[in-house]
Amino acid sequence: MRRPIEFKLRRRTLLAASAASAVAVGFARRGVAQEATAAARPAGPETSTVTLTINGRERELTLDNRVTLLDALREHLHLTGTKKGCDHGQCGACTCTVNGERVNSCLSLAVMHDGDEVQTIEGIGSPDAMDPMQEAFVEYDGFQCGYCTPGQINSAKSVLEEINAGIPSHVTDDLTAEIAVTDAEIRERMSGNICRCGAYSNILAAITQVAEERS
To answer: What is the mean pLDDT of the chain?
Structure first.
């Protein structure tokens, strides 16, 4: 009958084994991290050169492909009239127009707009030569803190152009008749622009006045 093997764990042996295991785990983790980094690298170029016509002026920018139109305007062109509010497309503070249609610039990548025409609040008017919509906002006090006002004005101008073009909204009753500029139509179409100061009735009055002057 064989005698049982006597095994005695020495402290030095335990420390050496632990160190070897730690080194092995470290190399394994490093390999996994390197593989993950390699997989995360973009397949194409990380930057692009785009040409945008901003307020009638052609501008060429080389941007990271992840830069939004909003950040291109504010951080690269220093057109800070277009505001960053929620940065999730929910408040409308960043509203500007691209090829005549309003967009939430925080949700749109700048590289998507190569060759497009962009208009910001800086291109609508100036203190010495205000657009009728800007004048109406001043007359009816359509702003308080003013942070949302550039987006409100861009949207307000687009609202009247959409109605004039016969584009219906969710509250348009008769899709075959000419769309009237009603309070309900304006409120529905402006619902994407949030005013945290609550100047909605004044904004409505300003838009209504401009619509009446045009008719």
So the answer is: 90
Structural domain total, the chain: 2
- The pTM is what? 0.79
- Per-residue model confidence (pLDDT) at position 67: 98
Its sign, for the CA torsion 116, 121, 127, 129, is positive
In the numeric block, the tokens 């730690």 are attached to: 22
> Which pair of tokens denotes residue 147?
């942070």
Please give the structure tokens belonging to residue 157. 């101008």
Widest Cα–Cα separation across the chain? 113
Query: Residues of the chain whose pLDDT is less than 50?
Result: none
In a domain, 13, yes or no: no
| Cβ density class 179-214: b for 16+ within 10 Å, e for less | bebeeebbbebbeebbbeeebbebbbbbbbbbbeee
Q: Which residues pair with 81 in a beta bridge?
A: none
Please report whether residue 26 resides in a domain.
no
